[in-house]
Design brief:
191 residues
């Protein structure tokens, strides 16, 4: 692949929210529209596209772009207001980990302990709704949310945070977030 091809795949992955099947179809359509000479060279299985897109998204250029975008968010005061939410559906099953809700016996048979399992994707959105952090966690509990927020935001971003919304407000969650975001002022509200 050339730089131009990688850019096309990156743009397709970005616009299709990383859905590998759509990227694969779009690349085949683009190849056919350009004369079809390279169509037979394109991978036919989703697994190949998945690996390619994952490597592309982990490249130095994409990481640098991510850091630039997060710096721009910080400069615009995006982290003053945080909305934190967890979702079980987007977190793919990991080999060696029992599915969420499994019995203790099922968890005991797995390589990954239940307490170390990752079942939830926690997203941290800024003032405009831009995703400023995302990480996997065991659940949506206060300690899990705190770990993701602490890992995903820089020290200056944590200090910038003044307001936070979560979908499971509690005194425990407030204390956990206040411990990592020292300038939090507004109490948590249900979203």
């Amino acid at each position: 692949f050339t730089q131009e091809a990688a850019t096309l795949v990156f743009r397709s992955a970005f616009l299709n929210q990383g859905r590998f099947e759509r990227v694969m179809v779009e690349m085949h359509v683009m190849s056919q529209a350009a004369g079809g000479e390279a169509t037979s060279l394109l991978p036919q299985k989703t697994a190949y596209w998945q690996e390619f897109v994952e490597q592309l998204m982990r490249s130095g250029a994409v990481r640098a772009l991510e850091q630039d975008l997060l710096a721009a968010c910080e400069a615009e005061g995006e982290m003053v207001f945080l909305t934190i939410d967890g979702a079980y559906k987007p977190c793919v099953h990991l080999s060696g980990q029992a599915p969420r809700g499994s019995s203790a016996a099922t968890h005991a048979d797995q390589a990954i302990d239940e307490k170390d399992s990752l079942h939830v994707v926690v997203t941290v959105r800024g003032l405009s709704g831009a995703i400023v952090g995302m990480g996997a966690a065991f659940a949506e509990g206060a300690a899990d949310v705190q770990k993701v927020v602490f890992r995903q935001l820089t020290a200056s971003q944590l200090i910038m945070a003044k307001n936070a919304c979560v979908d499971n407000p509690s005194a425990e969650c407030w204390e956990a977030l206040k411990a990592v975001c020292p300038n939090l002022e507004l109490s948590l509200i249900h979203i």
